[in-house]
């Protein structure tokens, strides 16, 4: 479940920023998570963005009946800077666990290149995996920095320019690409936003760190039932995911925003 939630958000949230507000803007989103139509969890994201730095926090947990089966929780935080209209991640940290185990991953990056990774306790299941090379750790986004997606200046916030892109992601262990492709436009209405969204088909491409004979990796690489809805944020000229749906080995999973807001803040984004 931890990898499912992390992957789904990486699909929708691979984002580059191209704006310079005078003050920090706070983006908040709350999501409901369901599997085969059953509500199994909640997630929340908060991003603090100013003219040259950002901080993004994301939390998710199982709820209801699902929590009785597995007490799964995860918390992720990323900080970095914005240069020439793109994200430059600096730090990434995540803690995920259940009733049996908790694992922490910390990563340091400079200019999109990974400089150090610490995983505690370390992953011991390394046999049969595609090796992660130094080149795989260059020009990447961590999973949480993949949260806010820029649209080039002069391009519309709804349509192909919102979707069409490749997102290189590295989580400290697995390297993969997410490719988004525009398929259409819909109109939605939720607390905090009412209007058009861009609908993107998504494809998952494993690069390294995965097991060569992994059934789940092969399934996701061949999966043609992945879709992301992106809503425009006018002031920042970015798009934000409101919905991610994908077929999994356990059935159809859905992460859907139930609240969304953008508000100014006099406190600038922290990078510590």
Automatic annotation (TrEMBL):
| Pfam families to which the protein is assigned, alphabetical | DUF3108
> Which protein, by its recorded name, is this?
DUF3108 domain-containing protein
Its organism's taxonomic lineage begins at: Bacteria, Pseudomonadati, Pseudomonadota, Alphaproteobacteria, Hyphomicrobiales
